């Protein structure tokens, strides 16, 4: 039986990590996988997480099962974090999931059960797991233009033109903030136009918010998601605590289904719990409980917010430094967008051949499409990356 299986394509991003590990050069720089790293290249356990885990170990009375949809306190704390003070609680169904990936999976399964024929619209480019999950679930999907490689900004005209073709009931996937892989994000005015369009086309928004707090701030990064919830009758949201709480391997995530009214909310809640049951019965609780403790405790929360602010400010400073270094090294403003982008990634707009040269000649590893992890840089590697990019471009011009 097992010999009938087909080999699976290697994950392109995780493959870069393997190549990086196998590279013996001491000066190598890993800008591949999407994990936050501090200036020493380490992915720390956040202070508040450590404190909450200690407290939990000492006080947790049981590890018996929680509710099928997850601990109600977690669902409420996350609704406050993602959807803010004015959240329409009577319209919100929610379920704990294994990370943001689990939330995306459950959101798409819910959508497939509700409207089996709907098409999922995905930005081009996007996180590669989006089309993979859709394909796995047998959901038809197509791309909409998102990124202008010339300017390094969102292709507003292309996006609006493509989304004008969305059919009633279709699902439109949007990155709530910190677009992965480009780092380019819609302006507030464009978010408004997107909301208008979805309302007019009677489409459902699916917001993937995996980097809340990594862009401009915890509240600022949730603004687009909250706008869509305030304007549209139905919104699906997949949120991840992997990055902003540094809980990658603990798999804390949540899916929200914002319904048009409370009766539809009850149906969605019932279905989300049933989907959890058939997929994994109960979502992991440890990370979710840590998140709840941090969000609900004044001191832990203040410390988490302070550390998250440092993480964000560090990435913003690296963006500024890299944009300035590239400006000097290439004697052009071609890469100024790096400073305007937000989140952990930007795309440099290099060809695959140029990316491969960075890897072979300079031991600098980024994804083939020239996406790089800003947090993989530090004061020493910023000028090295800038001069390597200039070198690769200079030789491309000469050739
Ligand atoms: C855009 C996007 N969505 C969702 C996720 C899911 O993260 P996780 O399943 O680790 O919580 C990621 C992780 O890299 C991501 O980049």
Reconstruct the topology from this structure.
Elements (H helix, E strand, L loop, with lengths): L11 H11 L6 E2 L16 H13 L12 H12 L8 E6 L1 H16 L5 E5 L4 H8 L4 E5 L1 E2 L4 E2 L1 H8 L7 E5 L12 H14 L2 E6 L8 H4 L1 H9 L3 E6 L12 E6 L3 H19 L5 H11 L1 H33 L6 H4 L4 E3 L4 H11 L1 E2 L5 E3 L7 H18 L1
Parallel strand pairs: 1-12, 3-4, 3-7, 7-8, 8-9
Antiparallel strand pairs: 2-10, 5-6, 9-10, 11-13
Helix pairs in contact: 2-11, 2-12, 3-11, 4-5, 4-10, 7-9, 11-12, 12-15, 14-15
The structure holds pyridoxal-5'-phosphate.
Pyridoxal-5'-phosphate (PLP) binds next to helix 4.
Notes on the structure:
The chain starts with 11 loop residues before the first helix and ends with a helix. By secondary structure, it is α/β, with parallel strands linked by helices. It has helices at residues 12-22, 47-59, 72-83, 99-114, 129-136, 156-163, 188-201, 218-221, 223-231, 262-280, 286-296, 298-330, 337-340, 352-362, 381-398; strands at residues 29-30, 92-97, 120-124, 141-145, 147-148, 153-154, 171-175, 204-209, 235-240, 253-258, 345-347, 364-365, 371-373. It has 2 domains: 8-46 and 310-397, Aspartate Aminotransferase, domain 1; 65-296, Type I PLP-dependent aspartate aminotransferase-like (Major domain) (Aspartate Aminotransferase, domain 2, 3-Layer(aba) Sandwich). The strands form 4 sheets. A 7-stranded mixed sheet has the order 2-10-9-8-7-3-4, sandwiched between helices. The radius of gyration is 21 Å and the shape is globular. α14 crosses α15. It has 15 helices and 13 strands. α7 (188-201) links the parallel β7 and β8. Bound molecules: pyridoxal-5'-phosphate (PLP). Pyridoxal-5'-phosphate (PLP) binds at residues 34, 99-101, 127, 175, 180, 208, 210, 240, 242, 248, 253.
């Amino acid at each position: 039986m097992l010999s009938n299986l087909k080999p699976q394509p290697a994950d392109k991003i995780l493959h870069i990590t393997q190549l990086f590990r196998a590279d013996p050069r001491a000066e190598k720089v890993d800008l591949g996988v999407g994990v936050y790293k501090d200036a020493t290249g380490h992915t720390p356990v956040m202070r508040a997480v450590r404190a909450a885990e200690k407290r939990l170990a000492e006080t947790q009375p049981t590890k018996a099962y929680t509710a099928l949809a997850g601990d109600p306190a977690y669902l409420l704390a996350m609704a406050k974090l993602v959807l803010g003070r004015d959240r329409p609680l009577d319209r919100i169904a929610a379920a704990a999931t294994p990370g943001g990936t689990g939330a995306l999976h459950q959101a798409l399964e819910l959508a497939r059960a509700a409207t089996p024929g709907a098409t999922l619209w995905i930005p081009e480019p996007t996180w590669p797991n989006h089309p993979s999950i859709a394909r796995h679930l047998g959901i038809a999907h197509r791309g909409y233009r998102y990124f202008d490689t010339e300017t390094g900004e969102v292709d507003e005209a292309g996006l609006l033109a493509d989304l004008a073709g969305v059919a009633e009931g279709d699902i439109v996937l949007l990155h709530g903030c910190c677009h992965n892989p480009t780092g380019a994000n819609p302006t507030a005015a464009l978010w408004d136009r997107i909301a208008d369009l979805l309302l007019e086309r009677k489409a459902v928004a699916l917001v993937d918010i995996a980097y809340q707090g990594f862009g401009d701030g915890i509240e600022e990064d949730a603004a687009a998601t909250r706008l869509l919830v305030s304007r549209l009758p139905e919104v699906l949201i997949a949120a991840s605590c992997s990055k902003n709480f540094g809980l990658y391997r603990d798999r804390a995530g949540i899916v929200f289904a914002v319904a048009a009214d409370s009766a539809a909310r009850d149906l969605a809640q019932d279905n989300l719990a049933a989907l959890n049951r058939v997929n994994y019965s109960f979502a992991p609780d440890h990370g979710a409980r840590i998140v709840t403790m941090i969000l609900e405790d004044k001191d832990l929360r203040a410390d988490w917010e302070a550390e998250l602010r440092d993480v964000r400010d560090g990435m913003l400073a690296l963006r500024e430094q890299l944009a300035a270094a590239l400006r000097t090294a290439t004697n052009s403003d071609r890469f100024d967008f790096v400073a305007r982008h937000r989140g952990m990634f930007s795309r440099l707009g290099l060809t695959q051949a140029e990316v491969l040269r960075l890897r072979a000649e300079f031991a600098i590893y980024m994804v083939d499409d020239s996406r790089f992890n800003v947090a993989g840089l530090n004061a020493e590697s910023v000028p090295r990356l800038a001069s390597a990019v200039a070198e690769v471009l200079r030789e491309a011009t000469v050739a």
